[in-house]
TrEMBL record:
Molecular functions per Gene Ontology: phosphotransferase activity, for other substituted phosphate groups
InterPro entries: Bact_transf, EPS_sugar_tfrase, NAD(P)-bd_dom_sf, Undecaprenyl-P_gluc_Ptfrase
PANTHER family referenced in this protein's UniProt entry, alphabetically: COLANIC BIOSYNTHESIS UDP-GLUCOSE LIPID CARRIER TRANSFERASE (PTHR30576), UNDECAPRENYL-PHOSPHATE N-ACETYLGALACTOSAMINYL 1-PHOSPHATE TRANSFERASE-RELATED (PTHR30576:SF0)
Positions of transmembrane segments: 75-93, 105-127, 139-161, 167-191, 339-360
Record-level GO cellular component terms: membrane
Family: Belongs to the bacterial sugar transferase family.
Protein's name in the database: Undecaprenyl-phosphate glucose phosphotransferase
Gene3D superfamilies (alphabetical): NAD(P)-binding Rossmann-like Domain
Keywords in alphabetical order: Exopolysaccharide synthesis, Membrane, Transferase, Transmembrane, Transmembrane helix
């Protein structure tokens, strides 16, 4: 097979590397030092896309991701409806009316949220749980048992059990368990049918072309299942064969990053030996630019061992070293939180926003709003909205130079709205659009992002979630100008703490603290 054909199917960085050395040694030694003969590429295949997949693979992958989201989110909504219907039906049986008192309605709402949260904690909505019937049954049983205990304990603690009908509670719990169980039986059947049709395969990329990658490919080929390898990548292309079996080497880490932004995949498995700790560290730092899950393969000696707390992909044990906590279905919960709260805030604050827009237009010529390019989720650029706080005009670097105290570019109205953070209110529109979240790492201007991305490790991991109007760093005093690298490093550390420890309660805490902090802090100007 000609080298030219291979060049056409790899990424731009890989193509440049191959072009620099047309005498690529296809018998280069692998990690073990043994010669790895290159397997000829297939002669008849459809033109490859940027992932080396046949046309239509991108649409199919989007279908797979959407199908899993639909199953998980639909199951959560169905469980919420089942819990509410069970409570209302039991109430009607006991009291011959469906009109609950406000106290009983609050109890039902709190119990519903608590039950969904406990089921989520036990993994009842996790993809791997839904794939495995025994794990699904176990997670559902333990989740319902724990949720019942938690609801009863809280009810007893606040004295609610003494004032309500025990018969109503017993009927409600019984109906709830039955309806939720039916939901999960149906969901399990849907997943089983879709898997049997090959429609829920997980797409993975292998980073590192060596004996370990060859072993993983053999396992996947032998077991089949729900795994589809979309390509191999390695930064040392001159030492790699152009393919392992029927799987082609698609390029370097840079090519993988470019492909991830065009067509996200489910996970990247790093197959480098653990002795190559420097290379692994560099790869993880590069890959932090995207929210993809990254796994390390353990030493070959423990592949068959019964080691807890590791996951298996086609029988291969892997340790997860990077994964966003705010993934599906909790990402769906956070998105619902954003849309509901942002819509309510827009309605409540619209008179203030109209007044500010009028004041800005009257004080100085120019629009009331302005847009600026910022990096957001998955390192994608978007337009952020703000109230204009500076004079318009040909001011050098006005779009990227950070504002400073007594900055002559800032108007009188601008000084007030920057100090009180009212200039950020139009970003509620960004939240509704889906570019931002109410709470998350603050987005930085494009030049600042590129600068600090080179200086601070894991900086780009901030983009594993949507950027926020406010964040954990801001309520901890890291708001305003970052005139030193250390200040930016502290801000990034707080952003990563937020991502690793996210919860709905943490978001609510940050929103409440934001209202208090902006009146007492003087770091914004």
């Amino acid at each position: 097979m000609s080298q030219a054909l291979h060049k056409q199917e790899v990424g731009p960085v890989a193509a440049a590397a191959f072009a620099a050395d047309d005498t690529l040694d296809t018998m280069a030694p692998d990690r073990a030092g043994a010669a790895a003969a290159a397997v000829p590429l297939p002669t008849a295949r459809a033109p490859a896309d940027r992932f080396g997949a046949a046309p239509g693979a991108g649409a199919r992958h989007q279908y797979v991701r959407a199908a899993w989201r639909m199953i998980q989110n639909g199951l959560m909504v169905a469980d919420a409806a089942a819990l509410f219907v069970a409570a209302v039906a039991a109430y009607a049986i006991r009291f011959e009316t469906v009109l609950m008192t406000s106290r009983d309605l609050m109890f039902v709402g709190a119990s519903l949220l608590m039950t969904l949260a406990v089921l989520q904690m036990h993994g009842a909505y996790a993809v791997n749980t839904l794939k495995n019937s025994s794990q699904h049954i176990n997670a559902l049983f333990l989740g319902l048992l724990s949720a019942t205990a938690a609801v009863l304990a809280c009810s007893f603690a606040v004295g609610y059990l003494k004032e309500t009908s025990r018969l109503w509670l017993a009927l409600a719990f019984g109906l709830a368990v039955a309806l939720v169980a039916i939901n999960h039986i149906v969901a399990g059947a849907v997943v089983h049918r879709q898997r049997a049709r090959g429609l829920l395969r997980e797409r993975i990329a292998l980073l590192g072309v060596n004996d370990r990658a060859r072993g993983i490919l053999e396992r996947i080929n032998n077991t089949g299942g729900d795994v589809e390898v979309i390509g191999l990548y390695d930064d040392r292309l001159r030492r790699c064969p152009p393919a392992l079996g029927r799987h082609c080497v698609r390029g370097t880490t840079e090519d993988l990053l470019a492909n991830l932004r065009q067509q996200p995949i489910d996970r990247v498995i790093v197959t480098l030996p653990w002795q190559a700790d420097d290379r692994i560290r560099q790869l993880l730092n590069k890959m932090s630019q995207t929210p993809v899950r990254i796994d390390l393969v353990p030493h070959d000696l423990i592949w068959g061992a019964k080691v807890p707390d590791i996951e298996r992909i086609a029988g291969v044990p892997v340790f997860t070293v990077a994964n966003s906590r705010i993934d599906e279905p909790m990402g769906f919960v956070k998105r619902c939180e954003d849309v509901i709260l942002a819509s309510l805030m827009l309605l409540a604050l619209s008179p203030i926003m109209l007044g500010l827009a009028l004041a800005i237009r009257l004080e100085s010529p120019g629009p009331a709003l302005f847009r600026q390019k910022r990096y957001g989720f998955n390192n994608q650029v978007f337009d952020i909205f703000k109230f204009r706080s500076m004079y318009t005009g040909p001011v050098p670097d006005s779009g990227t130079r950070q504002a400073t105290r007594d900055d002559p570019r800032i108007t009188r109205i601008g000084r007030f709205i920057r100090r009180t953070s009212l200039d950020e209110l139009p970003q509620l529109l960004n939240v509704i659009k889906g570019d931002m979240s109410l709470v998350g790492p603050r987005p930085h201007a494009v030049p600042h992002n590129e600068l600090y991305g080179r200086l601070i490790d894991q900086y780009f991991a901030r983009h594993n979630v949507r950027p926020g109007i406010t964040g954990w760093a801001q309520v901890n005093g890291l708001r305003g100008e970052t005139d030193t690298d250390e200040k930016m490093r502290q801000r990034v550390e707080h952003d990563l703490q937020y991502i690793d420890n996210w919860s709905v309660l943490l978001d609510i805490k940050i929103i409440l603290l934001t209202g208090l902090r902006i009146w007492f802090q003087k770091t914004a100007y």
